[in-house]
Amino acid sequence: MKKIKLPEDFLFGVATSAAQIEGGAYSDGRGTSIWDEFAKRPGMIGDGSTPEKSCDFYHRYPEDIALANRLNIQSFRFSFSWSRIFPEGYGQINEKGMDFYKRMIDELYRYDMVPNATLYHWDLPQALEEKGGWLNRDVVEWYGEYASLLFREFGDRIPMWATINEPIATYVGYAQGIFAPGHCSEAKGRQANHHVLLAHGEGVRRFRQERMGDSRIGIVVDIWKHHPYRENCEADRLIAELENEKTYRSYLNPIFVGGYTDALMNYMSETGSMPDIREGDSARIRQPLDFFGLNCYNRVLDCADKSLIEEERKQKRMGGNFQDNGAEFYPKAVYDAIHLLEKDYNIKIPIYVTENGTPSYNEQPGEDGCIHDKNRIEYIKGFLYWIQKAVKEGHDIRGYYVWSLLDNWEWNSGFYSRYGLAHVDFQTGERVIKDSGKWYARTIKERAFDYEPGE
Ligand code: FCB
């Protein structure tokens, strides 16, 4: 048994998002988002649920932030609900929505928790979707107006800002139809993504314009690196290569290098999915950033012979994340991602692991009233071990956020996948801290945990 230590100034947090925890979908003048509307369509959400109430964080935030404090959480990552601020997407501000975030941030300060805010975590106002959503280039301006308002209102109170959480979700929503708003065309997916990237650049530009003092801005991208399933199999290698191009590289290249890779350009032209890219777009997207938010859950294995991995793939269906494979435990994924960021993109800014976690299905308290989620503890330990190794080797990793504080509304799997450190009874609203929550609280306090190498 080894003692694994994290540095004294390493930041431990939890990550959440508005659409998944807030509920209050129709409270105090909020407009609906694409996820509220998508969830109403039959068959789109695994258990037929909607995010209308979810964890009811909108009303219960004092209790939930107190719970986070009991877990010794140092930083709370959350997102703003755009349609709570601008019910129509732009124009008229909903003051009651603004007030909610002011009260919520006060509550974080009560416990000295560092607010880490995301401007956009997948929940576009429905009113904007009706104007074309992410396919309409005007969305860049709409997003800009929204971003500027939040920077002005909350600038000095929020030290960490992210423009976008996982831009790939927009691709999934416009190309694959399994996320909101449910379009199914590769060309739409690529166009929507191009606009998301432009919005990111616009957000950073406006942030600099507002002169935000010591606050920092970055973006959160998920890296699920694709590997060939069979070693030395050229067919598998080619699939993995293309998937890497279509996923994380299609964001990291424009953000850090400038423009799309030749391989992606070829793919888009061959598949008739080339977006409308205008002069100057590349420079607008590629803006200097203050930190990088890395979401990392696993790697993905690709195999040209589908029958070989069919069984594993079946299990990947419900996971809340379109590539969540749940099947393989590969915590080194985070170490590989850190190396890739430095080697392929030469990033010289601090990295925060802004999400990492694992789902359980139908997890309920046992007869003793507790939840013994040993798997989740082993999973987190594995990732923290590799993060700690990277820190020791001199990589600039400043913090780690567990996804998530609470079981919540997990997008298209509804309430079926539970990722929380605390269990939520969605009938009564009762919260119960799981064993993983207790373990995390101890780890944060001691800044160390016991680990059996190979775990
Ligand atoms: C990430 C999302 C987050 C949640 C977790 C499980 O991809 O950012 O909202 O769905 O997966």
Would you kindly provide a written description of the structure presented here, covering whatever features stand out?
With 455 residues, this protein is α/β, with parallel strands linked by helices. 42% of the residues lie in helices and 16% in strands. The protein has one domain: Glycosidases (TIM Barrel). It is built from 17 helices and 16 strands. The strands form five sheets. Strands 2-3-4-5-6-8-10-12 form an eight-stranded parallel β-barrel, surrounded by five helices. A two-stranded antiparallel sheet has the order 1-16. The termini are close together. Bound molecules: beta-D-fucopyranose (FCB). The site of beta-D-fucopyranose (FCB) has 13 residues, from loops.
Provide keyphrases for this structure.
455 residues; alpha/beta; TIM Barrel; eight-stranded parallel beta barrel; binds beta-D-fucopyranose
How is this structure best summarized?
With 455 residues, the protein is an alpha/beta fold. The protein has helices spanning 18-21, 34-40, 57-70, 82-85, 95-110, 126-129, 139-154, 168-176, 186-209, 234-246, 249-257, 262-270, 281-285, 306-316, 333-345, 374-392, 435-446; strands spanning 2-5, 11-15, 75-79, 114-120, 160-165, 216-222, 226-228, 291-295, 300-302, 351-355, 360-361, 397-403, 417-418, 422-424, 431-433, 448-451. It has 17 helices and 16 strands.
